[in-house]
Amino acid sequence: MTPRPFDPFQIMIDTHAHLDEILEIDQVIERAKAVGVGKIIAVGMDIDSNNKTLELAQRYPGIIYPAIGYHPWSITLQGIDENLAFVENNLSSCIALGEVGLDYKAKVKKQIQWDVFSKLLFIAKRSNKPVIIHSRLSHQRTYQMVKDTGIKKAVFHWYSGSLDILEQIINEGYFISATPALAYSQPHQAAIARALLKQIIIETDSPVEYQKKVSEPADLIKTLHEVSRCKRIKLEEVKQITTHNAEKLFSIPH
User: Fold this and answer.
1) 135, 142 in Cβ contact below 8 A?
2) How far is 243 from 109, CA to CA, in rounded Å?
3) Which of 2, 14, 15, 184 sits at 20 to 30 Å (Cα–Cα) from 159?
4) Which residues lie closer than 8 Å to 228 by C-beta, 6 or more apart?
């Protein structure tokens, strides 16, 4: 792959962070900017986190970009209608739907997860928004639902599934994301090693804890280094291409 022209001022994008869960957000943003992470996609999981995400995006325009969703961990029978309505009513002001998907370790019954995810995907399709997908132990079903709904733009967040399903994801033109877990997770390493760089974006999933260290967007630098190591591609090329990928997927101005 031919690298894009070197841009010493290129700003990296953390494509997945739960900023509503992070305290001292001003300091966190300053530490991120100090290492070249100048844009962050903040994802939501339910009405409360979605509201906080939208508020943060208003406070930090051009730095925080909102995505709202309804995470499988957050699903309750009494909350489904309200959460779906909130997403439908507010998605137009966001750059993506997310975090949404399936999780077969969650206590919520699979059929309920399928129904909610299906409705969310149709909302994304009608709004023409990319989708940020959670797919723990549910990679084949998640992929099939995304494809069957006719979603054109999607990222399978922190992909650690089988390489057979990864081939289908890549062939469909979807993206996968890399996290700091690339330092130790063999399934994650295998997926990132196999995928083309032009279909990889990088993230932190802050404030997830990796090897007993709570992450923040500044740790995107760790993800960058791990992708470079895993794929044996120069750091600057990884930075340029993954940033371009994020800009393209989420329609973020350069």
Assistant:
1) yes
2) 37
3) 2
4) 234, 235, 238
Integer Cα distance of 106 and 161 in angstroms: 17
Residue 58 amino acid letter: Q
For every residue of 104-119, DSSP letters joined together read TTSSS-HHHHHHHHHH
CB 190 within 8 A of CB 163: yes
Instruction: Give the pLDDT of residue 16.
Output: 98
Residue pLDDT, tens place only, 88-125: 999 999 999 999 999 999 999 999 999 999 999 999 99
User: pLDDT averaged over the chain?
Assistant: 95
| pLDDT of amino acid 3 | 40
**In a 10 Å sphere around its CB, with 0-12 CB exposed, 13-18 middle and 19+ buried, how is residue 254 labelled?**
exposed
Taking the C-alpha atoms of residue 156 and residue 176, their distance in angstroms, rounded to an integer, is 5
* 108 φψ region: left (φ > 0), alpha (ψ -120 to 50), beta (else): beta
Domains in the chain, start-ordered, CATH in brackets? 12-250 (3.20.20.140)
CB hemisphere CA count around 240 (13 angstroms): 14
pLDDT at 66 over 80: yes
| Cβ–Cβ < 8 Å for 82, 51 | no
Q: How many C-beta atoms lie closer than 10 Å to residue 232's C-beta?
A: 7
Whose tokens are 């953390």? That residue is: 14
